[in-house]
Amino acid sequence: MTASFNAESYNSGSYNSGSSASGAFTPGEPVLEVSDLCVDYGLGGNAVRAVTNVSLTLRRGEVLGLAGESGSGKSTLAYAITRLLRAPGVITGGRVLFHSRPDGRGLEQTVDLLDADANELARIRWSELSMVFQSAMHALNPVARIENQLTDVLKRHRRDMTPADRHDRAVELLRMVGITADRLRAYPHELSGGMRQRVMIAMALALEPQVVIMDEPTTALDVVTQREIIEELMQLRHRLGFAVVFITHDLSLLLELADSIAIMYAGRLVEYASASDLFHAPRHPYSLGLLGSFPALHGERVRMHGIPGSPPSLRNLPSGCTFHVRCSFAMERCKTQEPPLAQPARSAHQRLASCWLQDGFTATPEPLALPDPEPAAYRGSPNNRASTELIGDAP
Amino acid sequence: MTDATTAGASTNTVVHGPKRPGVAALEARNLTKHFAISSVGFGGRQVVHAVEDISLALPEGTVTAVVGESGSGKSTLARLLTGLIQPTAGQILLDGRPLGTSARARRAYTSEVHLVLQDPFSSLNQAHSVRYHIERPLKLHTNLRGAAIEAKIIELLERVSLTPGRDFIDKYPHELSGGQRQRIAIARGLAVNPRVLLADEPVSMLDVSIRLGVLNLFDDLRATERLATMYVTHDIASARYLADTIVVMYAGQVVESGPATQITDAPKHPYTQLLLSAAPDPHRTEPPVLRGRGSPPSLVSPPSGCRFHPRCPFAMDVCSQETPPPLPVGKDQVAACWLHSSEHAGDPPAAQTGLRDPADPPGPNGAVPPATGS
């Protein structure tokens, strides 16, 4: 890695990774705890519930993947957590606890983001919790130079920095994501899509947050660019120790990069497990269907079927389990009773699934009853991933 | 016309696409498209080299996938084949006959070659019902009228698995899901019994869980309608799933083509290897090693020689000087790469490319770096 990144100069904190060369890296204490979060669009009788009772825990340094189809509420969830949700979106319940980085006196502060006032939000947003938005094309200001957009956040949050310091930091940030300093004077339209997305990531990392929420950061990019950006991101994560919530519809990509994966369907979490458990032994029929929706790159060509039907309208949700109309294993009970998100009865690993087939009393179909895998060497171990050597440096 | 035909036949070019006996339903010969761009202040007229000398045959009952990054010219190729834009050079043959220029000939052509677009949310008119969309081609191209049209519409809807058709005929696009809309777009295409279906990223806007349903529909149509399908995509895994032949495009040129599984299991062109190494693959047990980086070149002034050489980890001196011809690298598989030419196989990698010598473990799929040449 060519970029030298002096994490110490802006942060005297003692958070658990930093740029030390130790390499040891294990997801630690919870940094973000979401419990029973509900989000509606609209009020009163017209309200549509987009997110229903979602609970998630993000640990320090973890990559949490959030997968789901359009309309499953994954982006809404991200906007609700960051309190960026705009009307008609309304947060109608739940808690979002954010454990900030220990302050000068070594005290850890816990803030409920849903109760936080403007001052508290201003303190936490970007300096501790930042976001990479879906479309860099629209998220960057088209009439401001890259440098101004990068230094804006420093101006606001690092009042003691001089303009020269800010410039140096902007150069460093760009170098960190593989862009040369001469692009500082460029406008967004002069950059390629991949470079714009890199600028967005540099901007999100400007204040060394503990949590970065990424909403489909690579969806509009070509596969090669996507792979480059993800490699860079994982290296930065390894070096700086931030945790990531990675939102995407591309489950095959998440399986490669996430530590744990939450699958959303119709605003609900239907399965929450480590990436390797989910890949080798899915417990929810929807997860199974999604895994069977990505044709393989190798092996025998077999006819695959995806999932019959189409995602439900939130205005007109099926009764009982919202997935039962598309589920090939649906039972009578699924039509009337909504299953709880619970530990599957026959799993040794800690994981959650919301399906009556996993209650321990029902015979579970074979594809949903595969044994939990042994922890794999590559998947689920951020050390190995982060040490990926690159061939050739970015030009 | 005769001259053009003989000229096209005499140039010794490789025709990409599935190999089948007989005359292909649709054939493109040496197709080239340059878009003129205005360049204020530069004096001379500049062109975008969008598609460069591509020969492609689409036999009936086959699916040909055209794979490439954005800007590789794959959509331009599809639009050239529809006749919506005129090629700068080259020729299109339907059932072996060159495409005529009269209004009548062009209309006949549009009833034989149909295009399915990427975005089913904008390719259907929100103000009109399903009936209207499918009725239009029937009224324009057939003699069916009245009740016969209605029966035909219902039959078409059921052919694309919208059953019962009667339930869908009076719906409006906003009442349908993305997958259903895409099926309407396909039914509209089938209305006139085309020979050729050109599908430009037909599933990329659809939800993951319903993509396979549409891909399977193309698979069924290949068998039942004997359609010659061209499937344009950026997703090489779905190309492998559906297609007989994969044609890989880069910067307006075909860099490799061959049977689908052969291309993904044993890619011979460095660009195909790069694409495969970058594709998400949960079955991977090791971190992927990207073979080459950077982004596609400007098509206004494409690199000399092989257009991939600035990104290629195996580039040699010859690569920046001469354009590689398509060279046979396997059964029905060709790759336009100097590494596979007997004259240049042993050349040392060019030092000036700035890319590190790829003395790395074999790439994805256990593919041997082509530099080993035999």
What's the quick description here?
The complex is a heterodimer of chains A (395) and B (374). With 395 residues, chain A is α/β, with parallel strands linked by helices.
Let me know the CATH homologous superfamily of the largest domain in chain A.
P-loop containing nucleotide triphosphate hydrolases
What is the number of strand segments of chain B? 12
**Any idea what the radius of gyration of chain A is?**
22 Å
Largest interface: A-B, 53 and 55 residues
Percent of sequence in beta strands of chain B: 15-25%
Low-confidence stretches of chain A: 1-26, 377-395
Give the helix level of chain A as a range of percent.
25-40%
Biggest β-sheet of chain A: count, sense, barrel? 7 strands, mixed
**What percent of residues of chain B adopt helix (DSSP H or I)?**
25-40%
Order of helices and strands of chain B: HEEEHEEHEHHHHEHEHEEHHEE
Any idea what the radius of gyration of chain B is? 22 Å
Distance between the amino and carboxyl termini of chain A = 13 Å
Characteristic key phrases:
heterodimer; A: 395 residues; alpha/beta; Rossmann fold; 2 domains; 7-stranded mixed sheet; 18% strand; disordered C terminus; B: 374 residues; 8-stranded mixed sheet; 4-stranded antiparallel sheet; 11 helices; globular; disordered N terminus
Task: Explain what the structure shows.
The complex is a heterodimer of chains A (395) and B (374). In chain A, 27% of the residues lie in helices and 18% in strands. Chain A has 395 residues and is α/β, with parallel strands linked by helices. Chain A has two domains: 30-258, P-loop containing nucleotide triphosphate hydrolases (Rossmann fold), CATH 3.40.50.300; 264-295 and 307-368, no CATH class. In chain A, helix 4 crosses helix 5 and helix 6 packs parallel to helix 7 (223-240). In chain B, helix 4 (130-141) packs parallel to helix 7 and helix 5 (147-159) packs across helix 7. In chain B, strands 6-7-8-3-9-10-12-11 form an eight-stranded mixed β-sheet, sandwiched between helices. Chain B contains eleven helices and twelve strands. The longest helix of chain B has 17 residues, at 208-224. Chain B has a domain at 13-250: 3-Layer(aba) Sandwich (Rossmann fold). Chains A and B meet through helix 7, helix 8 and helix 10 of A and helix 7, helix 8, helix 9, helix 10 and helix 11 of B.
